[in-house]
Design brief:
about 475 residues; alpha/beta; 8-stranded parallel β-sheet; about 25% strand; 14 helices
Length: about 475
């Protein structure tokens, strides 16, 4: 769409500024900002004018950790790229970075091509890919260089899930050494999967089969140990490290220590660790299975340390790890054996609202909200300032946000393709009203006006967050 759109009278919030400004959009990009009511702003006209008086005007969210259509445990995540990106837009997210999967015995290229095929023509918003590296060998290492050149600049490895995604320390070190040379960023699922498997086996042998035991065997100490080990391996390789879905205070402490030593080590947490706990895993009648994810939910006292980490910048990003499985027919695969419950929670639609609630509750500032949800993920994964901010030249990914609207989160009203909400019944203040993706209206005053295929693949440059 050509033509001009003018957003008038809102409070523009970025990671660095808050200003009452009008925003002019032309040809899918931000053309200019001017303080509201000034002659410059008053002189503008446009085919479409959006009144944002009393509202926030914020960059579209960047969710750097989603799993649409992920195969896991004999089933698939229930959101397709079509349903998942539509739900993301409803929640004020305008860019996702999903994970393409290399299967053992196959090339990175095969995995990446498969994910391109799933996503192409189906997305309501823009998307990029990270690459899950499951099989480190000489060919894989060469392919990593090629992928970085074409805009897939981050690689995820797993210290968990032996027999599926697991890499040993030697494989991890080789991949880290390669990324130190090619500029890629290693993302680490840091849990000691070998030790966890022993504890799983022992728990099941004792007849401890309920969902709550999923949290008990995946011990916080084994997340901390793996985080520590990943940091040391990255230090040996001279490579930066990004630890995904940090859930335990002991793991935050490892990241903080490394950062105090000046190491290029980064951490992400997710809304489920900030708002949910082992109390949810312990819900009766197998309801706890809805909350099975890895890393697992922790006891409530961990939440304060995660919020603190976000305030002190020992944690830099909040992503969702959106990986939904329906309760009926999918989570139920693990009745009688918690280790068979597909791991993952739905959340791509809830992240921006939950983090705004954190602003209301006094955990973080408005600018920090935008920093951890938009700007830093864009910088961390090489998309800034095209994504993650409102500035001349940036893509016109813009959300009109009503900070006073009240909502109750529910599976009845959400748009994710899953039969439950992890936040069912939660009251939130703040709601997305209108969403533009590259200047096109995807959500118009709480109505979906987007379409599959608007969203385009976004190649990324290397990490822009390094010192």
């Amino acid at each position: 769409m050509t033509g001009r759109t003018l957003i008038r009278g809102g409070l523009v919030i970025t990671a660095s500024d808050e200003i009452h400004a009008d925003v002019l959009i032309e040809d899918g990009r931000i053309a200019a900002l001017a303080a509201s009511g000034t002659p410059a702003a008053e002189a503008w006209n446009a085919e479409r004018v959006i009144d944002a008086t009393g509202k926030y005007v914020i960059p579209g969210g960047v969710d750097a950790h989603t799993h649409m259509e992920l195969p896991f445990g004999g089933t698939f995540a229930s959101d397709t790229f079509e349903t998942g990106t539509r739900a993301a837009a409803w929640g004020g997210t305008t860019t996702i970075v999903d994970f393409a999967v290399q299967s053992v015995g196959h090339s990175l290229r095969e995995g990446l091509d498969a994910w391109h095929a799933k996503a192409e023509g189906n997305c309501a918003i823009d998307y990029g890919f990270h690459m899950i590296v499951s099989d480190v060998n000489q060919e894989t290492l060469k392919e990593m260089d090629l992928l970085v050149e074409e805009g897939v600049t981050s690689f995820k490895q797993f210290m968990a899930y032996p027999g599926v995604f697991y890499s040993d320390d030697g494989q991890i070190l080789r991949a880290m050494q390669r990324s130190a040379e090619n500029g890629g960023l290693i993302m680490m699922h840091a849990e000691n999967g070998i030790a966890i498997d022993v504890l799983v086996e022992q728990a099941l042998a004792r007849g401890e089969t309920d969902p709550r035991y999923h949290g008990e065997v995946r011990k916080a100490l084994l997340e901390a140990e793996a985080t520590h080990r990943a940091i040391k391996l990255a230090q040996v390789a001279g490579a930066p490290l990004y630890v995904v879905h940090v859930s335990a205070m002991e793991a935050v402490a490892e990241l903080a220590r490394a950062r105090d030593e000046g190491l290029p080590v980064f951490g992400e947490t997710c809304p489920q660790y900030l708002f949910l706990s082992t109390d949810n895993l312990a819900e009766p009648d197998f309801e706890g299975s809805k909350y099975v994810c890895s890393t697992p939910l922790r006891p409530k006292e961990h939440q304060a340390k995660l919020w603190q980490g976000l305030r002190t910048n020992d944690l830099q990003v909040v992503s969702t790890d959106h990986c939904p499985f329906c309760f009926v027919g999918q989570k139920e695969l693990g009745r009688g054996d918690f280790s068979k419950i597909p791991n993952g929670l739905p959340g791509v639609e809830n992240r921006m609202d939950l983090l705004h609630q954190a602003v209301v509750d006094g955990h973080i500032s408005r600018r920090r909200w935008i920093e951890i949800a938009c700007a830093t993920p864009a910088r961390m994964f090489g998309m800034y300032p095209k994504k993650g901010t409102i500035a001349p030249g940036a893509d016109a990914d813009v959300v009109i946000y009503d900070p006073h609207a009240e909502q109750i989160v529910s599976a009845e009203t959400h748009h994710m393709n899953v039969d439950y909400s992890a936040y069912e019944g939660k009251r939130l203040t703040g709601r997305v009203e209108t969403v533009l993706s590259r200047g096109e209206l995807v959500i118009t005053e709480r109505e979906y006006t987007g379409h599959a295929g608007h969203g385009v693949y976004t190649p990324r440059s290397t990490c822009q967050y390094l010192n």
